[in-house]
């Protein structure tokens, strides 16, 4: 025993006794890479299917709104805003939801969100003015998606380590499955029943399924003890975090354009309404197939490397396939290919946040990441419709260039982040 632990008489001091009796700090247990984690993953698939998957099928609604005078006085730009509001409203409430989840746990915010998203679709079915559609199918649905999806995103990385990107890819594929189902289902319901009942049935289904998913979800916050700050501004002082946010911001400009515009693009080249809706469905089919594969590749070859390459490929694909596309077959081919890779941000955001900022800072870093995509998801489709050239032989020429350039620039941000991250790791290994 060191001399510093004894007093002048050679007896143990009060401070040393207290220190000796203090229990050692608990070391967080590592992610189990399975076990109940597979149940969490199943619930996460459901969450993505009945939140982002439903939102991804808005292209069917958009094409219908643009082709029919449903709301008098409404412009094309008005309808573009609704799809953007689904995403931006969800991202805007991320800090609030993060704080809510810290105080009440994961399930209560998710149950709240299930009620909101259901109420949004059902109330939209009774809308008669465009501003009512903004508040219901736009903002209310978006808030519901945020309250359901944001708490669930941070749970999957807590249960997986070596299989983290694979698990995230499988979970993210749920949005493609949901988008595929609702793209075909929405058009069929509109044609056979009505627009109003299409919205009501959608609201009932997503409400019930998200409630079930919420009851299955469990987090490991007691073991990990994440700070769960709603908005940690200290992270904004880091160059690597800023690069991550820039990659998300810029890539979302291209993502939103592709997600919502392909149905209307199909109509612009002379395809029918059913063919146009099937293009959105094939896009989501590609998403369901591609995301798990990207998860496997990410775990094997590196998350930053995979994200950078796929972002680059997505930009090249816009120029190589979408730009010359003029037939149903080529458009289907493009929709499947780009569907598999266009959502690389959603597939890799959580694992990359862990790699950049650490597991304990995941909720805070994700909140910043979600906030960074509010503006592009809100205004990208508005910009896209403004860039169209109605009456010309190539209506979507400028939107195609816009989407391709967005992905190319975003890939540059990711490659710089990879360089910075590798240098940081070298410094940690050899200080």
UniProtKB/TrEMBL annotation:
Source species taxonomy: Eukaryota, Fungi, Dikarya, Ascomycota, Pezizomycotina
Pfam families: MFS_1 (PF07690)
PANTHER family attached to this UniProt entry: MONOCARBOXYLATE TRANSPORTER, TRANSPORTER MCH2-RELATED
Family: Belongs to the major facilitator superfamily. Monocarboxylate porter (TC 2.A.1.13) family.
Domain of life: Eukaryota
Organism expressing this protein natively: Lepraria finkii
Protein name: Major facilitator superfamily (MFS) profile domain-containing protein
Main location: membrane
Ranges where the Major facilitator superfamily (MFS) profile domain occurs: 240-431
Keyword Transmembrane: yes
Transmembrane segments: 38-67, 79-101, 108-127, 133-154, 166-185, 197-218, 239-262, 274-294, 306-325, 331-354, 366-385, 397-417
Protein localization: Membrane
Keywords: Membrane, Transmembrane, Transmembrane helix
Bilayer topology term: Multi-pass membrane protein
């Amino acid at each position: 025993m060191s001399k510093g632990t004894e007093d002048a008489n050679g007896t143990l001091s009060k401070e040393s006794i207290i220190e000796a009796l203090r229990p050692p700090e608990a070391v967080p247990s590592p992610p189990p890479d399975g076990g109940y984690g597979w149940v969490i993953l199943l619930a996460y698939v459901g969450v993505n299917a009945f939140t982002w998957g439903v939102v991804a099928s808005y292209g069917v609604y958009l094409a219908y709104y643009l082709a029919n005078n449903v709301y008098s006085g409404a412009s094309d730009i008005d309808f573009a805003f609704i799809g953007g509001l689904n995403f931006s409203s969800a991202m805007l409430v991320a800090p609030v939801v993060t704080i809510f989840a810290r105080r009440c746990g994961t399930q209560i915010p998710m149950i709240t969100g299930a009620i909101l998203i259901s109420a949004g679709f059902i109330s939209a079915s009774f809308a008669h003015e465009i501003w009512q559609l903004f508040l219901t199918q736009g903002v209310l649905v978006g808030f519901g998606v945020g309250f359901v999806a944001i708490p669930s995103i941070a749970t999957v990385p807590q249960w997986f380590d070596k299989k983290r990107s694979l698990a995230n890819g499988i979970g993210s594929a749920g949005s493609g499955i949901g988008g595929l189902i609702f793209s075909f289902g929405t058009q069929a319901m509109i044609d056979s029943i009505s627009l109003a009942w299409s919205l009501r049935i959608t609201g009932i289904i997503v409400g019930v399924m998200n409630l079930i998913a919420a009851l299955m979800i469990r987090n490991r916050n007691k073991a990990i003890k994440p700070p769960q700050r709603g908005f940690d501004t200290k992270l904004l002082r880091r160059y690597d975090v800023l690069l991550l946010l820039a990659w998300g911001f810029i890539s979302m400009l291209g993502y939103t354009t592709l997600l919502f515009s392909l149905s209307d693009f199909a109509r612009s080249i002379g395809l029918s309404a059913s063919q146009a809706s099937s293009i959105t469905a094939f896009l989501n089919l590609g998403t369901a197939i591609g995301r798990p594969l990207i998860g496997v590749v990410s775990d094997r070859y590196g998350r930053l490397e995979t994200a950078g390459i796929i972002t680059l490929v997505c930009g090249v694909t816009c120029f190589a396939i979408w730009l010359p596309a003029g037939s149903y077959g080529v458009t289907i081919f493009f929709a499947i290919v780009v569907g598999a890779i266009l959502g690389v941000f959603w597939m890799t955001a959580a694992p990359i946040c862990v790699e950049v900022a650490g597991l304990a800072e995941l909720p805070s870093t994700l909140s910043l990441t979600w906030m960074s995509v509010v503006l592009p998801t809100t205004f990208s489709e508005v910009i896209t419709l403004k860039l169209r050239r109605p009456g010309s032989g190539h209506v979507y020429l400028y939107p195609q260039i816009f989407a391709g350039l967005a992905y190319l620039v975003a890939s540059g941000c990711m490659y710089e982040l990879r360089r910075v991250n590798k240098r940081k790791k070298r410094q940690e290994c050899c200080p």
